[in-house]
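From the shared-data thread, chain only:
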Amino acid sequence: MILDLFAGPGGWSHALTVLGARDVGLEWDEWACKTRAKAGQLTIRTDVAAYPVWIFSGRVLGVIASPPCQAWSMAGKRLGLIDQALVHQAVADLAAGRDTREQLLGACADERSLLAAEPMRYLHALNAVGEPEWVLMEEVPDVLPLWRQYAAVLRGWGFSVWTGILNAADYGVPQTRRRAILLASRVRAAGPPPPTHAPSAEPESLFGPGRERWVSMAQALGWGATDRPVPTVCAGGGPGGGPEPFPSGSRKTLIDARDRGTWTPHPDSETVPASRRQGPGRAARPGDDRPTAPPAAALTGEAHRWSWSLRSNNQTNATVRRADEPAGTLFFGHRANECTWVADTPSGMPDDEQRPAPIKITAREAGVLQTFPADYPWQGNKGQQFSQIGNAVPPRLAAHLLLPHLRPDHPFNPDDFALTA
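Structure, as tokens:
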């Protein structure tokens, strides 16, 4: 079997399914487990830190581990950095067969910090029977020193190991999500998969085709399509679902389901989506499946075009990316979703022209930007869904990392992960 520790809503699992394999996921979060069940993934709902390893002994081909990142992430309090020495101590002790987790846990500023040491408990027990054949681990960049400690232990057990930082955008994910990666194998040299994408498209050379341009948000979301219905207004909300981000009385259902988004070139780029609004009561939106902004008080009959950007949160230093670029790293904090589409005023637009109000990204859109299928069965309220999405491994990146271990003689097939909204 392939053992997936901290399996979440199924980023690794969906990639395995596309590649013709399955895993057994260990996960504690109730709603992530329900999402996995709806997606048809095998799951044991349990605390990874408490589950006995002997149950799997003699049956494990590969181990995947993406420990919870909240203790280390920029989106949290980052108490994991304070606890770093304790986590390193736990890894060293577990690698030597000493379980000091209980003592160390009492000294941690964030009890989740020590979860990053849990994979070593499984690896030490499985190594006693010559397992697993390969290991894949993923976390936020600040965990890289810990992965290097794991690497030193695994090399001592006969593994070839590579650790480093990979940018998901280099592998066709419409998001510049940087992650610390550990790749280890007993049967082949470990190394990062060759990137398939670059900030700018590369020309063909003597060595073959160049890399494609990074996938943009607009490209991933399919903005500009003309064959899909327009949904009703919706929004991100708070942890419990929360209020819609519109003034009282402005929550509307679109009347004309035939009105569609249009495309217009951005002056600084190749493509960027825009919306058309015309006639009384019609508000702009960035694509045919976007919710509307509140109706404008008065609009002229002339059609205006808008370009849109995604703002990662409501902080002053928030990452803002145009729709013709990949998103910044998607993360969703305790307020669940502060990630919004904002309209950019086109050049030549009158100063008194009313700009469309910011529109919160939907869970469906966020999932697509993580390279999950548009119809992935996210479970729970809005806050629970956004939490799952923000913590998930992008399946397309996961597939690149998994492929050498599952199909060593086959190149990555991008058609398996066609980005369709």
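Residues 271 and 367 are 22 Å apart (CA to CA).
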